[in-house]
User: What shape does this take?
Amino acid sequence: MSNTNTNFSALFANFKSVFQSEKVFASNYIPDHLWHREEEMTSLTNYFRSIITEPTASSRKVVLYGPVGTGKTVVSRTFGADLSNYLKSEWKPREPSFRFFHVNCRKTKSPHLILTTVLRQLVPGFPLRGFSVDELLRMFSLLLYEQNLVALLVLDEIDYLLPDERTNFLYSLSRIEEGDPRIRQDHFPNNQAGLESRFNLLCCTRDKNFRYHLDSSTASSLGRNFITFPPYTRNQLFDIVSSRAEQGIRAECYDDALIEVIAGLAEESGDARFAIELLWRAGKFTDQERKNFITPEHVRKAVVSVLPIERSVVEDLSIHQKLLLLSIAKLLANNKQYVTTPEVKKSYVGICEEAGVRPRRQTQIWAYLKDLGRLGLIQQEVENRHKNGQSLGRVTKIRICDVPVEEIIQSLNQLIER
Ligand SMILES: Nc1ncnc2c1ncn2[C@@H]1O[C@H](COP(=O)(O)OP(=O)(O)OP(=O)(O)O)[C@@H](O)[C@H]1O
Ligand SMILES: [Mg+2]
Assistant: This one.
């Protein structure tokens, strides 16, 4: 047996983790049961009801609004999966097929990428480049018709699209069905398609004023069907965390009093993700101390260690975005108020060398900095510098305001190692 194996055995000897399954704490985990969202599910079903009865009769568009961690993603995914399953058995072979697409706009950052992602699911190997957004839209519409499909597209975290892009894209999407008569005539000489609607849209937003950013024609089709997800109450959080604990933690390692503490701490935000993450982290601290019961003290430790930004936002960064953020955080950790782009670039190149990866070029670095800014991880401010009335050029000051940089460094180091 190799040394490594022997060491691992020693590590696990006499130690049983409090977790029985960690996968139920993963950000993409879909629970079997959704608590306290019956009303929202019913509204959603009512809005989309005619997909079932008259699949191509009209195009339905709905917006889910709610603050962070209120279940928008999990409800939309569950609804899409349930509807797919139901229609599979309900619709006869000659009726249209139903296709559900769920796109996260934080990860899939532009209308172009969103449409190619969707088209690639319909046409494997569909090229990533070479078509404009309008062309992609037309192809999408045509494919729905040719393949006899009815689609529901979820644009999740739509707030991450650039505001102008978002407005234009939603406008174009709402026009897919109305169709430009010239295009219609080219593609559908008999004009059958002009009478059909095969495209349905569901947007998830955290922005209360979402509807006010739409132009009037989109607002009239999209802005009316709003479902609001209120923050969860303490008791609701208790049920959500309790059922996650039942699935993920060994029964002898926690009790209801612990879940009460967690629900109490998450009550202010009403954020289920935060509550679930507290439980997971408290479990991790318990394992680290080689104890076999999670206590409120472990939860308190967990509270301190949860980043005020979402873990998933940092996790989803590409490796170079992580390295860039790490270089900014490391520079700022030396008690600096801000850093400049040349400083960041130098430190990033050094960190890449240490990590044994080839640094990206200047233009890519700019693009990554822009992404980090858009995700709210860094703040950038351009300053025009003058001396004795003469311009000394512009300098970009980069800051991290919302999160202690030491925490960013620690969690990035862990993620990068992984
Ligand atoms: N009603 C519920 N029952 C069980 N688990 C839930 C419920 N609501 C949310 N969760 C869980 O809480 C976490 C956050 O939920 P979700 O990701 O759906 O929130 P969100 O509203 O989409 O948040 P964001 O605005 O950040 O996108 C997920 O792990 C999800 O599984
Ligand atoms: Mg979400």
